Amino acid sequence: MIKVSKTLSYLLRHNAEKEGFTLLPGGYLYVDDILSNRKFHTVVTKEDIQAIVETSDKKRFTLVQDEENQRWKICANQGHSIQVDDLDLRPLENTEEFPIVVHGTYHKYWNCIAQQGLSRMNRNHMHFAAGLPGHDGVISGMRSSCQVIIYLDLKKALEGGLKFFVSANNVILSPGNESGVIETQYFFKVVDRRTGKKVLTY
């Protein structure tokens, strides 16, 4: 089921058009259309997809019934590299709801980030969590294996004109500036996750 979940995630986030699908508003695809796809039709059922959605610890997917035709449809809640119209994102306009906003990365990437800032790369948004993995209410937004934690100065970033959004599974997203980057001036502090030692303080 893990392999199916990863294949489903890749389809909904990155590969729908290449597989011949046209995304519905909000990034949805009909489940029966997915099941007819060559990568799924012999290995997965609608019940399997429902189980994947229900057991996803990071709430990666939303599965709903279309009100007009009663067909089941599914979307990835965030992480897209393809253009998605009407994705269910809520603008984040102040710091009251999320006093802590963090991004997790790895030591091997840190030197590049320290020099160039945080980049969304080929995705539409950078991902942030409202706390560390395992803390109350923190479902997704960071891999549990991350080694370096970047604490964002959300107030300063908002004042600097950067846009932030909240996904359906409470992940904080930002497209960054016009170059797809959040500069280091918007970092509050950076710490080694294992030791708690500060890597850099801004």
TrEMBL record:
Classification via SUPFAM superfamilies: ADP-ribosylation
Matching Pfam families: PTS_2-RNA (PF01885)
GO molecular function list: tRNA 2'-phosphotransferase activity
InterPro entries: Ptrans_KptA/Tpt1, RNA_2'-PTrans_C, RNA_2'-PTrans_N
Taxonomic superkingdom: Eukaryota
EC numbers, comma separated: 2.7.1.160
Keyword Transferase: yes
GO BP of this protein: tRNA splicing, via endonucleolytic cleavage and ligation
Keyword terms of this UniProt record: NAD, Transferase
Substrates-to-products reaction catalysed: 2'-phospho-[ligated tRNA] + NAD(+) = mature tRNA + ADP-alpha-D-ribose 1'',2''-cyclic phosphate + nicotinamide
Protein family per UniProt: Belongs to the KptA/TPT1 family.
Function of the molecule: Catalyzes the last step of tRNA splicing, the transfer of the splice junction 2'-phosphate from ligated tRNA to NAD to produce ADP-ribose 1''-2'' cyclic phosphate.
PANTHER family assigned: PUTATIVE PHOSPHOTRANSFERASE (PTHR12684), TRNA 2'-PHOSPHOTRANSFERASE 1 (PTHR12684:SF2)
Protein name: 2'-phosphotransferase
Organism: Elysia marginata
Native organism taxonomy: Eukaryota, Metazoa, Spiralia, Lophotrochozoa, Mollusca
